[in-house]
TrEMBL record:
Domain of life of the native organism: Bacteria
InterPro entries membership: LarE, Ni-pincer_cofactor_biosynth, Rossmann-like_a/b/a_fold
Active site residues according to the UniProt entry: 173
Keyword tags: Transferase
Protein name (Swiss-Prot/TrEMBL): ATP-dependent sacrificial sulfur transferase LarE
GO MF term list: sulfurtransferase activity
Amino acid sequence: MIEKLQRLQQILKEMDRVLVAYSGGVDSTFLLKVAYDTLGDNTLGVLGISETVPRDQIFEAQRMAEDIGVPFQKVDTDEFQREEFVQNGPDRCFHCKTALFQRLWEIATEKGFPHIVDGNNADDVGDYRPGMKAARNLNVRSPLMEAGLTKEEIRELSRQLGLPTWNQAASPCLSSRFPYGTRITEDGLIQVEKAEKYLKELGFYQVRARYHDRLVRIEVDKDNLEKAVQHADLIVSYMKSIGFSFVTLDLAGYRLGSFNDLL
């Protein structure tokens, strides 16, 4: 693991100046920290802002960047102006990441950063990730992947570096809660964001509020299914207050990218 960290540092040194596509998640936070420790002010973290990113996540990501001390900025992205994204086909992530990376290259060119890097890691190889195709098309590198670092190793190294994100739950963008083929709407995103925030406030660690129009399908870790049933009346009442008519609990429990099972 230490050898992989050293390899990562060497990759970054060879690039010299990097703009980090930063989300505040486990991987990009670790990459931002290592890049800043290695390159100093030759690192710039840029956080993409849109309706698909929870407000709490934006706040925490900005606070984390400030704690690291790295040069940092936020930028609005325009994926909602792209019909290919809104119509939500299986390649939705490709169009979203294309919008993000095109915007980041505008900033990188303006500020003199020859490289953009993202937080994809070695575990992402072979997974269904159309966003990686967008990265390759736009010459965005993935140094964590190049160094062979896995998610588990990144979490452990983050813990050693004192990063509070080391045990953070996975949190892809809110549009991933919509079944492929269901149009993504701002109102639907707001419902999902409110639903997941409420479930976390009840003490659930890993949650998903899957959007099915008037129905919300809740995923929690299997160990917490009984707890969810115990809180059923509270959960149903809240979900109906934000616009859902039907509330279901997925007995299969939380799993990453469950809509990909339909592909």
